Amino acid sequence: MRAQLRKELAQVLRDRLALALALLLPLLQLLLMGNALSLIVRDLPLVVQDLDSSPASRRLIDGFRGSLTFRVAPWPTDRQPEAALTAGVARGVLIIPDGFHRSVLRGVDAPVQILVDGADGNTARLLAGYAGRVTAAFNVEQGAAVQPPVSAEVRFWYNPERSSKKFYGPGIFVMGLSMFPPLLAALGMSREGERKTILQVYVSNISAAEFLLGKVLAFMIVAFGQCLLMLATLFIAFDVRLAGDPVPFLIATVLYAFCTASFGSMIGAAIPSQVAAMQAVMMGGFLLVFMLSGLIFPLANIPDGLRWLSNLVWARYYIEIVRDAFLQGGGWSAVWYKVLIIGGIGGVFFGLGWRRLRRMQLEH
What is the pTM assigned to this prediction? Predict the structure, then answer.
């Protein structure tokens, strides 16, 4: 037993990459999950349409602006405020009708309308509740705590029934595409290095780009098969339907399959150990996607010190495209740059993998 113990410890200590992953991944997971998870909704963008332009309406807007929950976002006065929800500029719209100030002075009912992006049912409920608190505080300031004259009438857009399935279903769809195709690609590529069969490639006349592209295309086909099965499940079990033009979603899906397959192949080319490659892919394909893509909670909830990291997470952009396709229907005008970002990140992964293989070919 002592001899076996010494042998195993010696093997672990010699494999510095596996040792670093075993020690650093739990620490990184603890830091990310301990700092990024937050169920407190903050800094939600709100567009205001003030049709009254009175001192009372400005005081009400200042109440929303002073709240930690809301951030009043600029919006052109000549555009319909509802378009801000479709474009993803705002999560809510506050509409103050004409005659609001007069109704407040008379002490009669003065309703304001709040349109809420109901795609995320949980956040929508919280936003509606916080809006009610702001209007209640405004009523107290006006001395109308018993019979408040200002009432908030809330409408939920895109997901009126606030079904969690319609919000989390597309997110889990993205999670599946983010985990399994890159995992298979990494295992397939690292197996070549672990068993030394990659040496046959180095001495052949096939180029590094041809070899890598063949690997990527194979696992893109796997991703497409997985995509079809999960889409059928979404349509049948989650009662999800396409809300607008499907072309952006289809093009983004092809680019995302390329991105994830290139990511897995890049990891496999850099780490010739299946166990270590699997850990690295799970770190990027699961932990970062789960924590920093907006899958579970809005990105605005993530502390500023970590929020910048979400800009590098490729699933963040694809989740927004998928939810737009199935819930909002904004189309190309809302997601075109996200499609380009996914393609760009996939190109970076492919380039890094190619560089690694080309350098190793030259060495051999």
Answer: 0.64
